[in-house]
Design brief:
By secondary structure, the chain is an alpha/beta fold. It contains eight helices and seven strands. A seven-stranded parallel beta sheet has the order 3-2-1-4-5-6-7, sandwiched between helices. It is globular and about 55 Å long. It starts with 8 loop residues before the first strand and ends in a 9-residue tail after the last strand. The structure holds NADP nicotinamide-adenine-dinucleotide phosphate. NADP nicotinamide-adenine-dinucleotide phosphate binds next to helix 1, strand 2 and helix 6.
Length: 259
């Protein structure tokens, strides 16, 4: 299917690895020029180079922490007027509800709620003026079904989800859609980190930890960044203009719910 977005320009945050990279690659395959961001310059440059070589699109990079004001200023200066924004950042650490104090919550809110909101506020007005735009926020299945040890993530992402629910309806009339993609377990560095946590807590091997987590997924496996990126690119396509304010689960059926 031709996604109809060849020649558009996208900012993809936290994109040197994992799900963000999956989104960047799928958009590039559809002919979209990219501004890619991550903190570490080396992996970012390597991923950008691979995308340029494979898909022939223009890719610029900004090595910066997207959860800070200075980081966002640097990214926005390079991005200019983009048509597509993919919001992403690392997830907060796991822990117990008794562990977290105000500072931990502020950090999680900055990273996973206030950073994407700041980028939406900076970029969506231009999209509305030009009459077309797409925003996809990478959140988590924990928005629909809480993961107890990820309480900081559950809280911050629920806040972003509430904001998107209202805001997406305020901008849709100008051709701009805002939606959330909710990853279940995907085979990325983040999944390896969570497998390691299970392996250490339960004194089992990494293979056993992975098998234990795969058993919670009806599809029987982890998702891939390629599958995730393809869903993101479709949401950014010209065919998805009627999808507004939705929370789309990509979890291999892990959340056991009818709706
Ligand atoms: P990942 O493989 O660890 O990749 C994270 C990417 O984000 C890297 O490119 C990293 O590069 C960049 N990054 C992290 N913090 C950043 C920051 N402050 N500013 C700019 N870039 C930053 O993680 P992932 O699995 O793709 O996860 C992406 C998001 O989805 C996370 O929020 C995660 O919690 C959520 N999620 C993932 C899963 C899963 O199973 N994978 C499930 C549910 C939710 P640098 O470190 O160089 O900055």
């Amino acid at each position: 299917m031709d996604l109809g977005i060849r020649g558009k320009r996208a900012l993809v945050c936290a994109a040197s690895k994992g799900l963000g990279l999956g989104c960047a690659r799928a958009l590039a395959e559809a002919g979209v020029d990219l501004v890619m961001n991550a903190r570490g310059a080396e992996a970012l440059e390597a991923s950008a180079r691979a995308i340029r070589d494979e898909f022939g699109v223009t890719v610029s990079t900004v090595a910066a922490d997207i959860t800070t004001e200075e980081g966002r200023a640097a990214v926005l200066a390079e991005a200019g007027a983009v048509d597509i924004l993919v919001n992403n950042a690392g997830g907060p650490p796991p822990g117990m509800w008794t562990d977290w104090d105000r500072e931990d919550f502020i950090k999680a809110l900055d990273a996973n709620m206030l950073a994407p909101i700041a980028l939406i506020k900076a970029l969506v007005p231009g999209m509305m003026e030009r009459g077309w735009g797409r925003v996809v926020n990478i959140t988590s299945q924990s928005v629909k079904s809480p993961i107890a040890i990820l309480g900081l993530s559950n809280s911050a992402r629920a806040g972003l989800t509430g904001y998107v629910a209202g805001t997406s309806r305020q901008v849709a009339g100008k051709g701009v859609t805002i939606n959330n993609l909710l990853p279940g377990i995907h085979a990325t560095d983040r999944a390896v980190a969570l497998d390691t946590g299970v392996s250490q807590r339960e004194g089992i091997s990494m293979d056993e930890a992975k098998a234990q987590r795969c058993a919670t997924i009806p599809a029987g496996r982890y998702g891939t960044p390629e599958e995730f990126g393809a869903a993101c690119a479709f949401l950014c396509s010209r065919h998805a203009g009627f999808i507004v304010g939705q929370n789309i689960l990509l979890d291999g059926g892990a959340v056991n719910a009818t709706l």
